[in-house]
Amino acid sequence: MNTKFKRTLVTAALPYANGPVHIGHLAGCYLPSDIYVRYLRSIGHDVKFICGSDEHGVPITIKAKKENISPQAVVDKYHKIMGDSFKGFGISFDIYSRTSSKIHHQTASDFFKVLYEKNSFTEQVTEQYYDEAAQQFLADRYIIGTCPKCSNINAYGDQCEQCGSTLSPTDLINPKSTLSGAEPVLKQTKNWFLPLDKLQPKIKSYLEKHSDWKSNVFGQCKSWLDTGDGLQPRAMTRDLNWGVPVPIKGADGKVLYVWFDAPIGYISATKELLPDTWQDYWKKDDTRLIHFIGKDNIVFHCIIFPAMLMEHGDFVLAENVPANEFLNLEGEKISTSRNWAVWLHEYLKEFKDKQDALRYSLCANAPETKDNDFTWKDFQTKNNSELVAIFGNFINRTLVLTHKFYNGNVPEAKTFSALDLEALKSLAEAPDKISAAIQQFKFREAITEWMNLARIGNKYLAETEPWKLIKTDEERVKTIMNVALQISCNLAILAEPFLPFTSIKLFNLLNIKPINWNHAKQTNNVPHPHLINKDELLFSKIEDSEIEYQLQKLQKSKIMNENIKDAQAIKTETSFDEFSKMDIRTATILEAEAVPKTDKLLKLLLDTGIDKRTVVSGIAKYYNPKDIIGQQVCLLANLSPRIIKGIESKGMILMSENIDGELSFVSPVKANVSNGSTIK
Description:
- By secondary structure, the protein is of the alpha+beta class.
- It folds into three domains: 1-120 and 195-330 and 339-357, 3-Layer(aba) Sandwich (Rossmann fold), CATH 3.40.50; 375-519, Isoleucyl-tRNA Synthetase, Domain 1; 576-665, CATH 2.40.50.140.
- It is 42% helix and 17% strand.
- It has 19 helices and 25 strands.
- The radius of gyration is 30 Å and the shape is globular.
């Protein structure tokens, strides 16, 4: 490790608090950063590991509207789910903070004011879509319309998720506001831009000093700088009511751009962790700053955040940004909206105490320089054929034989054969090989070298055959078993960054307190005399039935999404006369209650302006009864009555269904439309 640096600050990308975390997040960012930090701690280096929830921006407000709760309730919910998942997998953050905290709001505001007072920003008036009914500017994700490239009628203002095209809101055909359903209008607004075009020479100089970065990272940065007109000014403020308020006059109703505020979360979290010494980790040249991220965040961490730090002038810049590529799932891109994912909180329940099995599989298959694929069958193979059959088998044989031959007492090694010396030589060489790979962020190579040491242990036992030799040369067997126990202990030391739960278990079996990496070259870490504990299996086989269950879960997600897609397709044409037979009117919900012994149904009393009637509706999953009293809805009033759970339901409330299958009320845009007004 470079001795120029006295300390290292490691940041892991702040996960977005609008949903749980999945295996793609773990493989792309949090597992490699945790391995690296655990290694640095084990060699005695001064390191701090920083992360937290990213809790601002438009997707949070969209999620809040979908779930009919406040943005704060959304981030509170997912902050806990994500934090518990990380803890469950042993991701060893020194702090897991959040950007909705007071210390973050103050830190981000102060940072913006410094740049503002240095005239780092330019003020620009641009035209943006505005919803006159909702009386607010619309972020790109609040606008949907028809994609000009594939004709998807539900394309967003920034991207079409059907064909993957990057879009601008003005590219959409027939744009609509997702807030009111109205057609938005273009309206002028003022925002503050960071002139990346003028800062490009400084950014380019910084990047050229780091041409040794991973090729996928450096190559993407170069393409941003060298393609077309290069970097362009980017707005650092947004017209939104959720986020860090812009702390200057004339900026009412505006917040900091989430990608301006989020990376400052690394700074505010460090301040929260180390109120007296945080500046040592951000402002001293002998600090090594490393950002672990996924490839979709490269531009923000390698171009925009460094530009912000340069303009501020007081902070160190990242020494490395070892971003990983994407992890796919069963040959398809992971998609949260399609539920095509393996969620960490679900894995922890369904594979109890098997965190290290997934950590091993994801590290051994990490998407370090190109996209890679996770399959459940490969996960099963890595567990059964490697963790169980190679590593677990060696440990089990060593401990069982020690108890069988010596009642668990560690035998003394007196003389060493060529086979013993060869095994001990491999044992002493392994730490440097693994260290070199970790320091170069080659974690797949590192964990392969670790497993190779277990292979060496199995080979050593197979060649020496102590179970046969015990009958003729007991002194020789003592040396063999001592060497096997030394390999076992050093495997526990070297496993800690990768498989922390297993490392602790193995130290317990050896009846030894955890030993740090600096002792991993030694070949006498298990003392004599010493009594080890009874053997327990470190890993168990994963059965075919468990894998089949996971594959069926994914298949159900696929079928559900296909059904939703079919449901969203335009149905067969109908005549105007047929449509005219439907009597659709406005109505107001007067009372609402859950239908007993059901999960989905609500019993509603509606004022139709003509009468008061009961309607049973399957919306309990999306709406709390007490929250919808007074809600104005659209009612199909002349639908034949039906008996549902013993209740006569007279009519049907019209609901919209999105691609996720979530239901929302179809309501009049204008307030106080008279009940009973007909819809034509």
